[in-house]
């Protein structure tokens, strides 16, 4: 509990200091002192965001049907297809990267971990970096989500860890029959069970592009063979100018590869990898080579290209535009961001197609055209040595959300240049760092 108590004490001390300058928060009535329980509630919110929080609206808005509607609902049963759509993972879900190596796989003989979580660059679900200590109990460095003290990805002197998103369902659904004539009772093992009502109140709430390697060239060929595409709305798009762009695209997510933005916009609209994008099936005996044949017989493949071409033209963007021209940080259009849709360093940038991402209240990715909304947040490499961990990393969105802070965009600019920093952890490293500062709380 000392970690939670210290975190709350530090937060409250900062509020009392009068140093809060962020216009988003300064003077707002909802900015109040917090307690240990507030932090526990935040942890519960995060833990349930992909699970029981999906049922909050159903629980709170549930009301027994009356009259004829009651009889019809009992007879017709639940709308299972609608329920499945609500609970299935979104197709645009961004996942993370992580890798670990045991002592036998490293030159130094110590374990190593790469942590590269992908998450929103704005809002409460973005990562921030921290080094927390409880003397004699807890000494951990890494990152966590806003408002939650325990470090979710990071390292101490002996171990390092990371994690990623799971698209699996975390629950099992059962359909129970209502008692005929009594819509607020259901049958359990043949016996009626009365529903209980509870009143609640709530406050307001190098990027090698693998998919490009597989699809860019055959897509260019299919484009040349069918330079006119009819979209779902019946309109026709001439895509012939996109064909040489795709043919010459170097299939990366670097800043200066012409055609990267066009390919990004196509892959966002194309059929999913697990759908009809490829004509050959996945072969478990050849996991690295299958599937790999673009399904050019599927009209949705070229329709997606037609929609991408139309989108770029509507926004006045050349078809051969680079990411340097189109994809930028939330802080400034002058900070270009490398990375691409569905590549190792996956980056999601706003266009006219919002992407729904699961969260406590659902996060909708939107913003000015080309602005990064989701992607690599905190990138860490950790090597566990006998003399202590050696770590390097960067927080791509930067540490502060306050536009007046010197830490609002410093790491984002460094990330744009593919740089990062040494993370000093041991007492000796911190003593040698003239800029290091430790804040202690009773």
Mass-distribution shape: globular
Reading off the top of the CATH hierarchy, the class of the largest domain is best stated as Alpha Beta
Structural class computed from helices and strand pairing: alpha+beta
Tally of discrete structural domains: 2
Uncertain runs are 353-365
CATH topology of the largest domain: Glutamine Phosphoribosylpyrophosphate, subunit 1, domain 1
Tally of extended strands?
A: 19
In helices, the fraction of residues equals 25-40%
Proportion of strand residues: 15-25%
Number of helices: 12
Taking strands numbered 1, 2, ... along the chain, how are they ordered across the largest sheet?
1-2-17-18-19
Global mean pLDDT? 84
Please give the alpha-carbon distance between the first and last residues: 13 Å
Describe the main β-sheet briefly: 5 strands, antiparallel
